[in-house]
Here is the input.
Amino acid sequence: METSAATDPELSAAGMHAGRSPRWQRIARNIILGMIVVVFAVWLVLFITKGRFLRHSFETATSSLSQRKIHVAGDFQLYFAPFRLKFVADGLSISNPGWAKDRALFSARHLDARVAPLSLIFGQRHIYSLVLDGGKGDFEWDAQHVRNTWTFASDGQGKPFAMPNIGTASITDTHVHYSDPAMPLMADLAIAPITASNTHIGHSVGITGSGSFRTTPFRLSARLLSPNATLAGTTNRLEARAWAANSVIDVSGTLPGLTDIEGVPLDVAADGRDMSELLKVIDVAIPQTRHYKLKAKLVKRGDTYRFTEMTGTFGQSDLAGQFSITNGKRLKLDAALVTKRLDIIDAAPFIGYNPDVVATKGAVAAAAASGAGSQRVLPDASLPVAMLQRFDASLDWKIGIVRSRNVPVSDISLALSLDRGRLALSPLTFSMARGDVSSDLVFDTRERPSAIHYDIRLASTPMGRLLAGYGVADSGTTGTIHGRIKLDGRGDTIHDSLASASGRIAFVMPHGTLWTQNAQLAELDLGTFVSKMFQGKLKKPIEVNCGLIAFTVRNGKAAADPILIDTSKNVVTGRGGFSFDTEAVDMAFRADGKKFSLFSGQSPVGLGGHFAQPKLQVISPQLLGRAGAGIGLAVVATPVAGLLAFVDPGDAKSAACGPVLAGARANAQRTSKGKPRDDVGHGQTDKVVD
Here is the structure.
C-alpha cells in the first residue's frame, strides 16, 4: 500500500526546511533589525532629549581626545535632525595648550551648527549651517614657529588653518586674535556681522582691526569680495589696506584658500612719507626718502617674498625694477633697480642729509639737522650700525640722469653689497661733464668705530663744462682735469670718518686753454686786464701748460702739497689748507707773471671762512701794504714813482710739467731748468686750521 507524501514524516520535515532561510541568514537579519531598532531608539532618545544629557560625556571624551579642556557652561544639544548632526552650545570654551599665552583657543556665547557627520571623518569638514554669536578665537604660534594652537596633532607640528565648507551662516560680535612671536606679529581683528543664505552672503565681508608687526603698530581693513566662494571653500577674492609707519599699504588678489598665499600673485601698492620708515619695520636700512608711491606684484615662495614689475616715484625721481626679501637665518634683500631721472635733492640722503630740509632750507640747515655744528655742511648722521649688522643685501642700481643746476651727472651705475655689517659701494661709476668718475667706498661697521675707505677717481673731464654751472663758460676753454681722492678714516658718521682721515687728494690739469679773464683775475694783473677789456680780447684764450691741485691729508687736516699751475703768462701757486673736522679753510693763492706787467698786484688772494661760507680776500694785507708803499713813493717822489710798487718784473719761474702731471708732492716739484721749487711749500699748513 502506497503512503502519501503528506503523511511521510521525513518528506514533511524536508519541505519545512525548504521553505525556511538558513539559520545564519536569520541571525544576520535579526542583528541588522536589532541595530536599526537600537539606532532608531538612540536617535529617538536624542531627538526627544536633544542629547542634553550627553554634555558631561561630550566634555570628557573630547577633552581626552584633544588633550584640551573643553567645557560648555550653558545649554548643550547634540543630536541628528534628522540625518545631519546638530550641535548647540552656549558658553562653549576650548582651552589652548599649556605653552600658549591665552587660556582659550575658542569661546562662544552661542554656537548652533548642522554638520555633515561623515565629513568629520573623511575629507574636508562640511557645515550646512552656522550661527555664531559672541565668538572669540585665539590663534598663536610658538616662539619657534613650529606648533600652533589650532592644530590638534600628536606630533606637535602646526598645520595651516583649513577653512571648512559653510552653506549658510549668521556671525555676529566675533573677534579673532592672532600672534606669531617668530616674526613677531600680533593682530586683533573684528569680523563684521555676516548673514548668509544658500551660500550667498551679499557682496563682501568686512574685517577691521589693529596690531603690531615687530615694534610697529598698524591698523587693518580688509574685505572678502567673493565671500560666497570663500564659504564654499574655493577661491577668495581679497582686498586689504593697512596703515603703518606713516604709509598706506594696499594688497589685493585671489587666494586659493583663506590663509593660503603661497605662490599666489598679489597686487601690492604703498604710499607714504618715507620709504625708509616702512622698510625699517623689517630691520632693513635704506637712505631716507621724500614722499613715495610704489606698486608691484608680490609672490611668496617659502621664505622669499619677491616683488616684480615695480614702478613708482620717490620725491621728484622715478623708480622701477624688482627686489626680493628672504626671511631665512639672516634677512637678505636683493634688488635690481632702474631710475631714469634722479633729482639731486632726492640723492641728498645718500650722504646723510634730510631731503625735505635740503629742499626747503638748503644744505647747511640739513647738515645742522643731522647733528652737525653751526655753519657746517658735512653730515653728522650716524650710520645705523646695529641694523646694518642684522641683514644682508645686494643691489644693482642704474640711474640715467641726475637733475642738478651746477654739475651735470648721468649714467650712474651702483653695485652695493652688505655682508654682516660690511657695506661696500663697489664699483660706483657715473659720468660728470663728459668725464667719468669711478669709485669704491667701503663702510665696515664690524670694526669699532667703523673703518671707512674712500677711493674716488675722476677721468679726464672738460673744465669748461664741469664749471659751467658756476659761471665759467664752455666756449674758449679746452682745458681738462683728472684726479683721485683716496682717504681712510674711522667713525660712524661721514663727518667723523673724514675728520680722522689720512690720505691724498690730487687733481691734474694737462695742457689746454682758459679764458684770459680767468688768469688775469687770479693774478690781479689790472694793467693787462684793463687793456684787454678795451681791446675786446677778454675771451682770447691763454695756454695752461700743466697744473696740479693736491693736498696731503693727515688726521683730517689737508695741506696743499702742492698747488701749482703753469700757464703761458704766469705761474699760480697756493699754500695753506683746510680741516674736515671744523670745516675751516685757510689758503692763499699767488700768481706771478712771466712777462713785465704794469699794475700787477702780485699779492696773494686769500680764501678763508668755512665750507658752508667761504670768504675770498681779494684785497689782501700784502696788497694793502704795497698800496701804502705806492702812496708813499708818490708823496715823496712823483706820481709816476707810485706806480713802481705795482710793477711785476715778470720773473716767475716756469714749472717742469713732468712732476706736475705725475701728481708728485711738493718736494718733488722742479722749475723748467730742473731746480727745486721753493715757492710751493712743503706739504704742511703754516698753522693749525681751526
